[in-house]
Design the sequence.
């Protein structure tokens, strides 16, 4: 299971990358994609929508289940990863790269400090029985 | 596929049908070669591409398909939460009685007294079994029963001038519960399960509030566990002004032993095609009657059957007797009177078994499940280790960690043993879930044979894990590509050469 050091993580298994321009990129973790199994459909929000931290930003459907994806930060949606409509498998293949889901304009970038760091997230997954 | 589609069989000019002579006026001929009333733009220009096959081609095709089928009539079918019990053939004989079978649904009441009497008697039996005041037999599936029940929830709150927007559903619920609540226009809120597998009452307090319309509860729940705090949950839900909804999917476990009405449930739906032995699982059709506690009868779909003197009639709920629909009824939810033939089967089942027999159904289904659970707990993990009701949930998490074999592979391999798997990956709160409901109609020998097959597969997982990942080997089609089926479904057949991606 990969948990990059430079990201922040939610308890619901989403990651956030704060980018140089103050914007944030969001996706689901490697652990989340492996638990879900093969992803077959991803529903993403409309660009321009404002999300509260913890609010469902979309839905990810795998052969096993359908799950909400929650926004780890409050902010406005700047961009969604349209490539996932044709190739949802990118979420499995490259969850931290091409499998990203949305780009956000955070209301308060400092909100990310409240999220887990890599060590904290690893501990969370171990507590849930993952490896 | 080893069997072609019927469109791929036969050839030009192959014919099998012998139509009887027309015994009504030919509309096309009478109108001088035109079909009256059909807009020109809707008429097809070329004949439809229907199969052209001879009678033997048709008969052999469907016979071959039926031979590939797996059904309760040719094997054990412990698909969790579906109550795939044996469907007694006596019930089919009753449903095929000409007086029932040949009755037109629009027959006037005077000519349908027997059918109306059966509906009234079945309703009374279901009310007694569940402790509810009245039932509507209209809904034709569990999910439609849920939708009808939630429409009653809405009508109830509106009658009190209250607008409530949320419905609470446990995280162990059947997927139809949140889906039905959303269909009925409610926002779905999830309540967590506690360590014993029941509703986490503290979490319930967190989500309960003046905007909650109902809590939907399956009891026993999808873990096969009876919620030990049902009365406390009912009290809290009612104190919040909400209604308590009983999903009757698992009623089989408590038939004749406990009643939702006595536990404080306000609305229930039953599945006659599960608990009351109607055929289902591709063999349907279903029937999902909805019952309500006293005080909610006026919201039920209409018509209901009422008895006046020694006659039965359809009652549309209008106090003036003018056959106008009851103003507070949620209305009709199905054409005609529901799936009447399933109601006949359910009534035959109730009469055949009687009160004592129904109680033994519940007791035997619980005994069978506990026997199989204890035996299989030596091979798989038991995430909630306490006596179960009519079904139980195992986890294949340890097997997956140790061998890489997933519970999906175990299920596929069971097919090679000629057995139907349980439900896999449900409920969602158990990792690598395998849910097994043996039902009361299976013998000790059948249960042991199933356990032996699962034990043998667990051994294979350690010795030849790759083999399990490729199973099944003996079925008409091998491992299906579920990912491709979901990502790139082919939903429409096209003639060869015209196939599009």
Sequence:
């Amino acid at each position: 299971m990969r948990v990059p050091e430079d990201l922040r993580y939610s308890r619901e298994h989403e990651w956030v990358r704060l980018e140089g321009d103050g914007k944030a990129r969001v996706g689901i973790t490697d652990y989340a994609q492996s638990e879900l199994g093969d992803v077959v459909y991803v529903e993403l929000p409309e660009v321009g929508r404002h999300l509260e931290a913890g609010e469902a930003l979309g839905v990810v459907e795998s052969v096993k289940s359908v799950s909400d994806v929650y926004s780890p930060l409050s902010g406005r949606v700047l961009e969604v990863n349209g490539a996932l409509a044709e190739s949802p498998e990118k979420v499995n293949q490259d969850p931290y790269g091409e499998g990203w889901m949305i780009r956000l304009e955070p209301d308060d970038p400092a909100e990310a400090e409240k999220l887990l760091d890599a060590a904290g997230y690893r501990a969370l997954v171990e507590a849930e029985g993952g490896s | 596929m080893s069997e072609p589609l019927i469109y791929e069989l036969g050839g030009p000019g192959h014919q099998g049908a012998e139509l009887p002579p027309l015994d009504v006026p030919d509309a096309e001929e009478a109108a001088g070669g035109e079909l009256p009333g059909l807009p020109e733009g809707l008429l097809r220009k070329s004949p439809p591409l229907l199969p052209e096959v001879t009678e033997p081609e048709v008969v052999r095709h469907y016979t071959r398909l039926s031979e590939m089928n797996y059904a309760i009539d040719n094997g054990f079918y412990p698909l969790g939460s579906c109550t795939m019990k044996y469907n007694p053939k006596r019930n089919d004989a009753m449903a095929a009685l000409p007086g029932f079978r040949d009755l037109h649904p629009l027959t006037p009441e005077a000519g349908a007294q027997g059918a109306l009497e059966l509906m009234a008697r079945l309703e009374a039996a279901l009310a007694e079994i569940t402790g509810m005041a009245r039932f509507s037999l209209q809904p034709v599936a569990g999910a439609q029963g849920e939708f009808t029940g939630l429409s009653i929830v809405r009508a109830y709150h509106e009658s009190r001038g209250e607008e409530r927007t949320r419905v609470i559903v446990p995280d162990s619920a059947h997927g139809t519960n949140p889906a039905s609540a959303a269909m009925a226009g409610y926002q779905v809120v999830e309540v967590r399960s506690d360590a014993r597998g029941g509703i986490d009452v503290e979490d319930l307090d967190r989500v309960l509030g003046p905007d909650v319309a109902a809590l939907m509860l399956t009891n026993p729940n999808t873990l096969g566990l009876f919620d030990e705090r049902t009365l406390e949950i009912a009290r809290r839900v009612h104190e919040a002004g909400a209604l308590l909804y009983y999903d009757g999917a698992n009623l089989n476990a408590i038939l004749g032993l406990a009643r939702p009405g006595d536990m404080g449930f306000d609305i229930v739906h039953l599945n006659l095609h599960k608990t009351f032995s109607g055929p289902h699982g591709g063999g349907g059709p279903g029937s999902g009657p909805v019952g309500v506690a006293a005080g909610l009868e006026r919201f039920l779909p209409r018509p209901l059957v009422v008895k006046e003197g020694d006659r039965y009639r359809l009652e549309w709920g209008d106090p003036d007797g003018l056959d106008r629909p009851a103003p507070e009824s949620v209305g009709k939810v199905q054409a005609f009177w529901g799936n009447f033939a399933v109601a006949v089967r359910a009534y035959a089942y109730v009469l055949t078994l009687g009160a004592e027999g129904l109680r033994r159904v519940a007791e035997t289904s619980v005994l069978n499940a506990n026997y199989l659970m204890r035996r299989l707990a030596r091979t798989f993990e038991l995430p909630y280790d306490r006596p179960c009701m009519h079904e139980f949930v195992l986890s294949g998490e340890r097997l997956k960690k140790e061998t890489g074999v997933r519970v999906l592979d175990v299920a596929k391999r069971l097919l090679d043993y000629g057995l139907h798997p349980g439900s896999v990956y449900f409920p969602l709160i158990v990792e690598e879930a395998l849910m097994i409901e043996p039902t009361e109609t299976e013998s000790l020998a059948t249960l042991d044979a199933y356990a032996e097959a699962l034990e043998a597969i667990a051994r294979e997982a350690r010795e030849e894990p790759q083999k399990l990942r490729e199973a099944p080997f003996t079925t008409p089609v091998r491992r299906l590509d579920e990912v491709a089926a979901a990502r790139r479904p082919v939903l429409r057949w096209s003639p060869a050469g015209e196939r599009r991606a």
Q: What stands out?
A: The longest strand of chain A covers residues 56-62. The helical segments of chain A are 30-36, 83-86, 90-93, 118-127. The interface with chain B takes residues 38, 40-41, 61, 63-65, 88-89, 129, 131 of chain A (CB under 8 Å). Chain A has a mean pLDDT of 93.
